[in-house]
Amino acid sequence: MASTSPGYGITIRVDGPASAQPVSEITQAILAAGASITALDVVESVLDRVVIDVTCDAVDAEHAEAITAALSENKNLNVRKVSDRTFLLHLGGKIEIASKVPLKTRDDLSRAYTPGVARISQAIAKDPSDLRRLTIKRNTVAVVTDGSAVLGLGNIGPGAALPVMEGKAALFKRFADVDAWPVCLDTQDVDEIVRTVQIIAPVYGGINLEDISAPRCFEIEARLRDLLDIPVFHDDQHGTAIVVLAALTNALKLVKKDLKSTKIVLSGVGAAGTAVARLLVAKGATNIIGFDKDGLVFEDKGDEDPMRKWFVTNCSPGTFRGDIHAAMKDADVFIGVSAPNVLNEDDIKSMAKGAIVFALANPDPEIDPALARKHAAVVATGRSDQPNQINNVLAFPGIFRGLLDAHITKITDKMLVLAAEAIASCVSDEQLNANFIVPSVFDLNVVQKVAASVKKS
After folding, report:
1. Is 113 designated active site?
2. What integer pLDDT is reported at residue 304 of this predicted model?
3. Helix (H) or strand (E) holding 267
């Protein structure tokens, strides 16, 4: 059975006769169902009955239902209520607006609002550069999506994308003290998205594009960068690429290989995959063989996609025309940003000695990490319940902290490479091992080092 996850945590309220030892009965039933118990509390005890709240992590939603069913089948137990801890966390949303100034007296109101605020508006009208200094613009980012490529869920629309954007905004605040706000657009028309972001841009110090499908995301990003005087960062591309390069830098250091001489197989030549390849090439990679849903990427389809053109030009597989299984033979590195179960155990077994496998499809990776670890020296995934999580939160908070602090308006490949090097440097030689190639997302040094690298660039 796959690993349990807090993302599928449930709390079940159960009661049973005191004489039947309900705590023991509950524990046995849940462990037999393959769940992980994280808390167990007796909330009420009377002469003949005991009421218990038990919290456990499941593998998925179906597993959570199976756990509840297992408890219900026990004649000594009565399931009163089941609470999904993830849904409870989202009730009413995850973020809010709070005032930074006191509003307790008439004097407070006079300064924060009318008549005093008119003086601030006049100052900005006279000198537009005061906008950053005197408003939230100096520390605020718009997290913009059209809901067309949300996580691994696909085109689910702007409303369904909102919980993800809220989470992104919460991460911005928690890790870099950046005030971010979700902007979920009910359109997937490139012109409408570009124009909408352009006309709301005066409020924000930066734009974080999120979960917009390829190839439209490339055009949207490029056009906004030309139009706006604030930085535009597409996290699915650049955030992923930065953390992959950081992790691969340390993984190669561990297995004593040089990026310039490694054979890399890339599954998923979309927004993330192309950005990963671009950064690897900028750092010195010379042998990348890419695959998308149609197979080997070796020629331009004539669809005017500039990023595909770049990939074909810079990551040509030479004379190789086989499938991904053939490409894996003697490969040093596999990077997957595609779909579940692309590889099998034999593919990993056929790789070169000291193989590195980054199976990053979420929530189900390109190969079971447990199978990959049987033959690869280093394995990373996109999951928080596995070691070596390639998590964009290592990159984007520090990137924007540096961009906002230094008033930088344009993002360059050099900046992204320096950010990756900063993340990699947060793992010391003494810490580096097969299960620790990237720092913890809670490492306070990460945001500081990444922000400093951005300012340096």
Report:
1. yes
2. 61
3. strand 264-267
Q: What is the pLDDT of residue 303?
A: 59
pTM across the whole model: 0.88
Q: Which among 318, 306, 308, 313 is positioned nearest to 263, based on CA atoms? A: 318
168 is catalytic: yes
Instruction: Give the Cα-Cα-Cα angle 163, 164, 166 (nearest 5 degrees).
Output: 65
Give the C-alpha distances (Å, rounded to integers) separating 453 from 54, 138, 179, 299. Answer: 46, 19, 21, 36
> Which residue is catalytic, options 113, 260, 410, 414?
113
User: What percent of the chain shows pLDDT beyond 70?
Assistant: 98
Catalytic residue among 75, 94, 104, 168: 168
Helix-then-strand count for the chain, H and E: 18, 14
| DSSP-derived 3-state class of residue 11 | strand
Rg (CA), the chain: 25
Nearest of 216, 148, 157, 158 to residue 184 by alpha carbon: 158
Segments in the chain below pLDDT 70: 1-2, 300-304
